[in-house]
Predict the 3D structure of the following.
Amino acid sequence: MNNTYPFVLQELPYSYEALSPVLGSETLHFHHDKHMNAYVGNLNQALEPCTDFHGFSLNKILTKLDELPQSAQTAVRNNGGGVYNHQLYFSTLTAPNAGTKPSAALQAAIDRDFGGVEQMIVKLKQAAVGRFGSGWAYVVSDAEGVLSICSTPNQDVPDLTKFAPLMTVDVWEHAYYLDYQNRRPDYFDAFVSIINWDAVSRNYDERSFSF
Ligand code: MN
């Protein structure tokens, strides 16, 4: 994302009912309007005294956490990561079975690096279900366009100087508890039908490592 401090909560690119029945409107209202909104507010509060960082994109901030004043590092890491992760998550979802498909370039990379979309999804599920506690699982690309799966705890993000996240799945309980209670594997299986492959393909085409 290219915007700078003060960061603003981006609206969902679809209605609160659009992802139903995979994710209901109550989940989206809580997840976007309460949880994500809090990360945005807390990020701005943490960055307020860090004027040297006010002109930086969020990607750039997240690659320079160790240059922040010590007192701000944890709050910016947690809340900046929270903003980054939720923007990626919400921007790569669409209505169930909407018919989006990987671009030719992304499909070729998926076939080369995983043996196909199904096999990639199996690995992403292993990362998502295997993440102990709260966190995220991602499909990422390196600078050469080689794809891999990774996972982070809490609101951490992958190393953005080496990996461009193409899509992510939120495995914090707040992402799925109202719809699936404790059944994270069921949430994941349903999540697959709301992946916006057009948006994921765009992220692959536009991957960038200089901020
Ligand atoms: Mn979340």
